[in-house]
Amino acid sequence: MKISELLPRLQQNDSLALAKAISLVENRRKDYKRLLDGIYPLPRTALKIGITGAPGSGKSSLIEKLIAGLREQGLNLAVLAVDPSSPLSGGALLGDRLRMIQHSNDPRVFIRSIANRGHLGGLSLSTHEIVDLLQASGKDVIIIETVGVGQSEVDIVNVADVVLMVINPDSGDEIQIFKAGIIEIADIFVVNKSDLAGADNKVAEIRNYFALSDRDPLVFPTSVKEDRGIRELLAGIRRFQETEAGRIRDKAARMKASYIEKIVIERVQEAMRLDPAAAALARGEGEGNPQRAAERILELLKKGGAHDKKN
Ligand SMILES: Nc1nc2c(ncn2[C@@H]2O[C@H](COP(=O)(O)OP(=O)(O)OP(=O)(O)O)[C@@H](O)[C@H]2O)c(=O)[nH]1
Ligand SMILES: [Mg+2]
């Protein structure tokens, strides 16, 4: 399929075209930049919901329920499961984690799993781009699931407009979570498995944590098992989208700036790899002074910049 055919089909929410476009971008195939050129002028109105939390806290189960609720509203959905783990363990884990969602089996729900291999430790460029492709295809809601509470998970889930942190009544990992700074980016706390003992305590614990701050946390108990609290959670997400529209816009602007910065870094690294003299300097060869080596690399790249213009 040519880019010129791919784009219109993508816009019509064609899943096959979308899958092709994603692989094209993910694998940096020829013309992927041209494809991206085509998507940014398109309207984008998707609500992006990020979901993070410890392994097994019920993120995928919850997503299945959210999907069901959103499908009732006739919306077009996408779920992106992002695995921040190393490429080595990534594959197997991902298969496992996706099993839950696969059950939904609805052709109007686009599901994709990706291993996030940001070589600088943060969010890889293609994760940004895949979210943008999903937006361009006219999805109404994009759900992004990632496991864990470390820095790369924070990066991944922060692409979303609304970030959900899933906690369990018996998890006892709050201190860790709070330390990891994820609490700063969590917009809504979901105490899932509220059918288990201790759910009320957990809700109170989260509220207590914020008692001395000026933040009034949004906390929703849910039980996927007993099908409770899902409707309230969905309503809470929508309310957040409306009342925090300004903050959501500011965050999107910040994410865009960091995305641009990452593209620049990617391009510089690529150019360094392609220029043997620059590559040698980057390996520390031929110049004892690292500051001078960096300056010389930048000079070489500036001169070599002309042939970049072709792509
Ligand atoms: N009792 C109870 N169990 C639940 C509930 N929600 C999910 N579970 C169970 O918790 C286990 C993990 O659920 P998942 O949805 O796979 O959890 P996850 O957070 O997506 O897991 P990872 O993707 O591996 O991090 C499954 O056995 C679910 O059946 C709930 O509300 N109550
Ligand atoms: Mg999962």
Protein model, in words:
- This protein is an alpha/beta fold.
- It has three domains: 1-42, no CATH class; 44-243, P-loop containing nucleotide triphosphate hydrolases (Rossmann fold, 3-Layer(aba) Sandwich), CATH 3.40.50; 257-310, no CATH class.
- It is built from 14 helices and seven strands.
- The chain has helices at 3-11, 15-26, 32-39, 59-72, 87-102, 125-136, 151-157, 174-179, 182-185, 199-209, 230-243, 245-274, 276-282, 290-304; strands spanning 47-53, 77-83, 109-115, 141-146, 162-167, 188-191, 218-221.
- A seven-stranded parallel beta sheet has the order 3-2-4-1-5-6-7, sandwiched between helices.
- Helix 4 (59-72) crosses helix 5 and helix 12 (245-274) crosses helix 13.
- The chain starts with a helix and ends in a 7-residue tail after the last helix.
- The chain binds guanosine-5'-triphosphate and magnesium ion.
- Magnesium ion (MG) is lined by residues 59-60, 97, 100, 145.
- Guanosine-5'-triphosphate (GTP) is lined by residues 53, 55-61, 97, 100, 147, 192-193, 195-196, 223-225.
Q: State the distance separating the first and last CA atoms.
A: 20 Å
Number of continuous helical runs: 14
Q: Gyration radius, to the nearest Å?
A: 21 Å
Strand % is: 5-15%
Structural class: alpha/beta
Query: The CATH topology of the largest domain, please?
Result: Rossmann fold
Query: What can be said about the biggest beta sheet?
Result: 7 strands, parallel
Total count of domains:
3
Going by CATH, what is the homologous superfamily of the largest domain? P-loop containing nucleotide triphosphate hydrolases
The helix content, as a percent range, equals 40-55%
Strand order of the largest sheet: 3-2-4-1-5-6-7
State the CATH architecture of the largest domain: 3-Layer(aba) Sandwich
CATH class category name of the largest domain: Alpha Beta
The residue-averaged pLDDT reads: 85
Number of strand segments: 7
Query: Which molecules are bound besides the chains?
Result: guanosine-5'-triphosphate, magnesium ion
Q: What string, H for helix and E for strand, traces the elements in order?
A: HHHEHEHEHEHEHHEHEHHHH
Shape: globular
Instruction: Give unreliable regions as ranges.
Output: 88-92
